[in-house]
Amino acid sequence: MSPAPEIGVAVFILNDNKILFGRRLSSSIGANTYALPGGHLEFGESFEECAAREVKEETGLDIKNVEVLTTTNNVLSDSVHLVAIYVRAQLSDPNQIPQNVEPDKCEGWDWYDLKNTPEPMFEPLKAMLQDGFNPFPTDS
Ligand code: 8DG
Ligand code: MG
I need a surface site. Which of 36, 41, 54, 80 has the fewest CB within 10 A? Predict the structure, then answer.
């Protein structure tokens, strides 16, 4: 039987025209590449609940105004099929500082301009950003 696709929620945290990215560590999927905070959808969760939970678990940040933006569907190998729901959110308190709560999974978090995103980028995000995807509201 084939393995099931994984469902992830990834969060563009937008603050002061910047986006939070962190470099993935260890043997996880996409090791050494930069990605958004996020994680697997748990049974019964909404996308918004999953986004807030994963952001808190990984960065210590509290978010608000979670909005679904788009999805990706990537088959990375014979055994890895990722479906991701991308949301955007704002910090509940814009003065909060991200903490590296899971240092075994992430090198650390930092803010980047959309025009100067870090490399190498996690594959599912790379194509999106190369295509010109913009997570900011159109009036900002
Ligand atoms: P968990 O198992 O502790 O719940 O979650 P995690 O260990 O934090 O999961 P993850 O690998 O960070 O991400 C969940 C899934 O979402 C995984 O299949 C990879 C996929 N994914 C994308 N794009 C992105 C992204 O930009 N950031 C994150 N974190 N995951 C992403 O396809
Ligand atoms: Mg994660």
Answer: 80
User: What angle (nearest 5°) sits at the alpha carbon of residue 30, between those of residues 26 and 32?
Assistant: 55
Indicate whether residue 20 lines ligand 1 (CB < 6 A): no
| Centre of ligand 1 from the C-alpha of residue 41, in Å | 9
CA atoms within 13 A on the CB side of 135: 32
Burial class (CB in 10 A: 0-12, 13-18, 19+), 79: exposed
Tens of pLDDT, residue by residue over 88-109, are 999 999 999 999 999 999 999 9
CA-nearest residue for atom 17, ligand 1, is: 8
Q: CB–CB of 87/48 below 8 Å? A: yes
Instruction: Name the pairing type of β-strands 106-112 and 34-35.
Output: unpaired
C-beta neighbour count of 122 within 10 angstroms:
22
Closest C-alpha to 85, from 123, 131, 51: 51
Distance 57 CA to ligand 2 centre (A): 9
Q: CA 105, 129, 76 angle in degrees (round to 5)?
A: 55
Give CA–CA dist 140/136, Å, rounded. 7
